[in-house]
Amino acid sequence: MPITHQGTICYSIEELLQRTHLPPSAVRPCLEDASFAGALRLNDSVYITEDALSDFFARCFSYAGVAPSCYAMPDDLQHAASPWAKTLLEMYRHPFAFGTSLSPQQGRVLHTLVANIQPRNIVEIGSFIGISSIWMAAGFSQDNTDGTLHAIDLFYEIMPCYPYRSGYLKDPLSFAESAANAAHLAERIRFYRMNSYEVGRQIDTLFDFPIDLLFIDGDHSIRGCMNDFALFAPSVSPGGIIVLHDIYPDVCGYKGPRYLLDHVIQDTPEFKVIELATTPRNYGMAIIQKTAHHTRPWHSFGYWKLAHIRLKARIQKTRTWKIFKAHPFVNILKKAL
Ligand SMILES: C[S@@+](CC[C@H](N)C(=O)[O-])C[C@H]1O[C@@H](n2cnc3c(N)ncnc32)[C@H](O)[C@@H]1O
């Protein structure tokens, strides 16, 4: 946790290394560099002031020999005149956008989907800095006057993730709101700084409408994806579409979306699935149509699997489990088996 020193928020080097995965060899030269004025020595520890974080990370990446990455911008986006396209171009320039926000090619898929089906209500789980939100909301036509996108995210501060994402952003919600304004889409996008689990548990009161398009790109753990699906998919209207991002774990490193597809969605006749390869990295996308309301109880949609995952996670957090796991006898038993 950061500390406050004389009214300034400061982060310890240990915390920054842990949160960003930066190698100490990239940090050391920055701290020794006399031209860097953002380091403070307090109680035998080194801290970086909040206003120096962007400079600090840029220097660390440079000392590590890693240039900040950006997606290559397709020609049509570079030369587009509309406010939303210009805003996207600007957003993609920021070093914190790369890797976590979807690429322009993937954004185009979502945009085209919205432009064709003209949903009245889109729910997006995981907006990050708002890039996917803008791609989708820009697909609403003038005639679709009610078309609204509900974008849910925790909107926590964004730290770099070495070596992929450089750049720091204190307040992603303000960033996303300003971008929606600049894109002339502020009236089309409603942002919710909330945990999707909390929204899902109150879905009938918060969202008293059928969802025509649900984009799940939030918590990518098995538990997170199963929760989002179990809580939001029942509100998707028959004929409505659900999009999952990052479905190829070998490329993207996340297991949740694939698990959801293989263990719940593929087994269920009410869902029809198309898997799409994506570029520049094949993280993959699944476009799922919910053809009818569920005729079977929720346990057939993986409810029991979800309950099992939740119970397991709860047990693994207990002290008794940790003591049990650390016991030498358990190791001997594991090896024997
Ligand atoms: C991969 S990013 C989303 C990228 C975004 N869709 C885009 O392409 O521009 C995942 C986002 O999900 C959010 N997230 C993770 N768990 C969440 C949860 N339980 N509730 C709401 N948002 C969550 C994170 O804060 C992060 O911004």
Automatic annotation (TrEMBL):
Q: Does the keyword Methyltransferase apply?
A: yes
Q: Does the keyword Transmembrane helix apply?
A: no
User: What GO terms describe the biological role, i.e. biological process, of this protein?
Assistant: methylation
User: InterPro entries per the record?
Assistant: SAM-dependent_MTases_sf
Pfam families documented for this protein: Methyltransf_24
Keywords, ordered alphabetically: Methyltransferase, Transferase
A GO molecular function term, named singly, is: methyltransferase activity
- Please indicate which superkingdom the organism of origin belongs to: Bacteria
Designated name of the protein: O-methyltransferase
Give the organism, scientific name. Answer: Candidatus Moduliflexus flocculans
List the lineage, top down.
Bacteria, Candidatus Moduliflexota, Candidatus Moduliflexia, Candidatus Moduliflexales, Candidatus Moduliflexaceae
